[in-house]
Amino acid sequence: MNYWLIKTEPESYSLEDLKSKGEDVWDGVRNHQARNFIEKMKPGDLVFVYHSGKQKALVGTAKVVSAPYPDPKAADGEKWLAVDIRYNGHLPNPVTLSQIKTSDQLQDLLLVRQSRLSVMSLSKQEADILVTMADA
DNA sequence: GCCAACGTTGGC
DNA sequence: GCCAACGTTGGC
After folding, report:
1. How confident is the model at residue A136, as a pLDDT?
2. How distant is C1' of C10 from CA of A53, in Å?
3. d(Cα A62, Cα A6) in Å, to the nearest integer?
4. How far apart are CA A91 and CA A51, in angstroms?
5. SS3 at position A37
6. Which InterPro entries match (predicted)?
7. What is the CATH number of the domain that holds A19?
8. Range of the domain at A29
9. pLDDT surpasses 80 at A107
10. pLDDT exceeds 80 at position A77
11. Which region holds residue A134: left if phi is over 0, alpha if psi is between -120 and 50, else beta?
């Protein structure tokens, strides 16, 4: 299983929106590095959902439920990708960006190192640490 | 509201 | 193919 982190602005699409839909298309990613991560997603992978903007925290998780497929909203001739994800749950406690930044073990997170990237991979160790922090 | 970090566009 | 100008994202 792989672990991922996706960012969203809750004003435009929040974890609550995903929860109410149950399952939805994750599309609209227009960055090559992010696209390369989506390409590697597999059904069953765990996805952490991060709210940017005011909240700046990981708020919940989702599961990948499809293989990557061409983004239906991509312009003609453009090869962007989308996947279907299903709401998995809210974290017991959101893990804030400042918590992540002050954690010795999470300094290599792309969230910290490359603040504009909207889809990134996590190591199992990083995922475990985040789950532990969310339970604390 | 500002600014850093990127990505994209267009002139040359 | 280089690079300046501009737009966008997102933290502060």
Report:
1. 83
2. 7
3. 10
4. 12
5. helix
6. 5hmC_binding, EVE_domain, PUA-like_sf, THYN1-like_EVE
7. 3.10.590.10
8. 3-135
9. yes
10. no
11. alpha
Stronger pLDDT, A64 or A75, i.e. the higher one: A64
- Residues around strand B, C-beta < 7 Å: A 30-33, 114-116
Strand C nucleotides below 7 A of a protein CB? 8-12
Structure tokens at A9: 């602005």
Distance in angstroms: CA A108, C1' C7: 28
- Rounded to whole angstroms, the distance from the CA of residue A66 to the C1' of nucleotide B2 is 41
Task: Residue A125: count other Cβ atoms within 10 Å of its Cβ.
Answer: 12
* Total domain count, chain A: 1
Whether the CB-CB separation of A5 and A44 falls below 8 Å is answered with no
**Residue A19: φ, ψ to 5°:** -60, -45
